[in-house]
Automatic annotation (TrEMBL):
Keywords: Hydrolase, Membrane, Transmembrane, Transmembrane helix. PANTHER family: PRESENILIN-ASSOCIATED RHOMBOID-LIKE PROTEIN, MITOCHONDRIAL, RHOMBOID PROTEASE. Pfam families: Rhomboid. SUPFAM superfamilies: Rhomboid-like. InterPro entries: Peptidase_S54_rhomboid_dom, Rhomboid-like_sf, Rhomboid_protease_S54. Belongs to the peptidase S54 family. One of its GO terms (molecular function) is serine-type endopeptidase activity. It comes from Patulibacter medicamentivorans. This is Rhomboid family protein. GO terms for cellular component: membrane.
Amino acid sequence: MTPTPVGMRCPECAKQRTKVHTSRSLAGTAEPLVTYAIIAICAIAFLAGGQFGVSESSTSTWLYRNGVLFGPLVHDGELWRLVTGGFLHSGLLHIGFNMLLLYWLGTEIERRLGSFRFGLVYLTALLGGSLGALVQTTATPTVGASGAVFGLMGYALVEMRRQGVNPLQSQIGFLLIFNVVLSLRPGANISFGGHLGGLLFGALAAVVLHEAARRRGPAWLGPALLVGLSAIAVVGAILMAGQTGITDSGNVTR
């Protein structure tokens, strides 16, 4: 027998080394290519608009007119706006804050999920945010990745809770509370409905992926459930877009 830090072991066992996992190794090794691609698309779209105001940019650009989320136009069949609105931003502060949060949350979550599943989670949250924005109002145009970013927060909150971590004692919990308070301040042109919709669908995405894994279903089950959630968000958004409201294209919520 050979003495070791964990007690007496036979010579063969003493030569074995147990691999130690750190938080970094458990986070996965996949490169967050989807996160980088989303940030790049948002940056290119912002630069292509040619409007670089700090707090708010012009709403007269071609990209804005053809990509903004606007209920009456969605009702007329321009369904791509449910997605493209999430890649447009109003002002440097708007895009800067969203991209910072996207980088921080997206890189970690994508490394855990892999690029394909992360892309589906992000799309689900984005469409959920579009639904929430239209529930709040169909009369005001909406832009920004905030709904999808809130969806990543919702995903992270569910995962942390599942692992026994109190989200309110984490940086994510602080960011969520801070953004909710910011969204509710008087006079803020912020789509609280979009934030809440993204948060809800991001959390649901975490639940369905966990349930699919827990039940040991086929590999396609989790992605299929995410596609189902996305379809529900699209159908709900189409129904809400048909609601009448006073057209006010002069303002924009973010």
